[in-house]
Amino acid sequence: MEIQNKVAIITGTRRIGRAVAQRLAEKGADVALVYYRSKSEALASVEQIRQLGKKAQAFQADLSKRIEVRNLVESVTHVLGGVDILVNLASIYRSVPFEQLSDTDWDADLDGNLRSAFLCSQAVAPSMRSRGGGRIINFADWIAASGRPRYAGYLSYYVAKKGVLGLTEALALELAPHILVNAIAPGPILAPPDLSAEENQEVLKATPLGRWGGEMEIARMVVSLVESDFITGECIRVDGGRHIR
Questions:
Q1: In the chain, how many domains are there?
Q2: Spacing of C-alpha 167 from chain mean position
Q3: What is the pLDDT of residue 194?
Q4: Which of 20, 21, 150, 219 has minimal CB crowding within 10 Å?
Q5: Structural contact between residues 33 and 25, judged by C-beta atoms closer than 8 angstroms
Q6: Strand order in the sheet with 235-238
Q7: Is the bond preceding 97 in cis, omega lying within 30 degrees of 0?
Q8: 215 belongs to a structural domain
Q9: Is the previous residue joined to 177 through a cis bond, with omega within 30 degrees of 0?
Q10: Where residue 41 sits, what CATH number does that domain have?
Q11: Is the pTM here over 0.85, yes or no?
C-alpha cells in the first residue's frame, strides 16, 4: 500500500511511537497521535510532523474503554478524513511478583496490552474498508514471539503479549483480503533510562549483534509492513538475534 496521503493512527507517543510517526509522515502520511498521560511528547511529535508539511493532531484517550476508542476514531475521521493505518504501540510493561499479582494488576496488563489493540482494530475497520483497505500493526514482544517465558515476574504481561499474537492471526483472517494485519515483536531496542552499566553489558552480551537496535529499526519495519501487499497474519521479531541465545 502506498503511504502517500494516507492517514495513520499511532497509539503510544513516546520514544518509539515518535519515531514511527515521523517516519510515516516522511513517507507522506497524515498522523493522529494518541496519548493517555504523555501529552507533552505527543504535542512535540505533532509539531515535528507539521514541519514536514503533513497534517498531525494529538488525541487523548483511555484505549481500554470502548466509548473512548469510538470517540477517538470519530474525531480522527472528522479532523483527518478517515483511517488507513493503525499502529497499536500503546503498552504497559512492569514487573509484579506472582504472589502479589492482584486482579487490578491482571486487568491493567490485559487491558493495556491486548484489549486496547482489539478495540482500536475493531473501531477502525469500517473506515479502512470504506477507503479500499488498510493496514493494522500490533506490537508483541520478542519473548512472547519466541514461545516461552524467560523472566519471572511478568506473568500477566507475557499472557497479554501472547494474546496479541493470537489477535493478530485471527484479525488477519477476519479482515482479509483488504485489511492486512501483522505484528512486530521488539527485543533490545532502547535501553531503559535507569539501566545500570552492568545490566547494559548483560543485554549486549546476550544479543548476537551486540548492541541496542534503536527506535528507527522499528519505524523501518512498520513502513515495510504497511507497504507490503502480501504479508498478513505474521509476527516479525526485531531483536538483533536475541531469541537465538
A1: 1
A2: 13
A3: 87
A4: 150
A5: no
A6: 56-60, 30-35, 7-11, 85-88, 134-139, 179-186, 235-238
A7: no
A8: yes
A9: yes
A10: 3.40.50.720
A11: yes
C-alpha closest to that of 156 among 116, 115, 105, 89 = 105
Which member of 35, 36, 154, 157 is catalytic?
Answer: 157
| φ and ψ at residue 70, rounded to 5 degrees | -60, -45
Residue 183 in contact with residue 138, Cβ under 8 Å? yes
Selection from 241, 182, 215 nearest residue 1 by Cα = 182
Task: Note the pLDDT tens digit of each residue in 95-151.
Answer: 999 999 999 999 999 999 999 999 999 999 999 999 999 999 999 999 999 988 999
- Residues spanned by the domain of 222: 7-244
Flag residues of the chain having pLDDT under 50. none
Chain length of the chain: 245
Record the cell numbers describing residue 228, joined without a space.
507490503
Domain assignment present for residue 33? The answer is yes
pLDDT of 193 reads 87
Note if 93 is an active site residue. no
Please state, in angstroms and rounded to a whole number, the distance separating the CA atoms of residues 87 and 184. 10
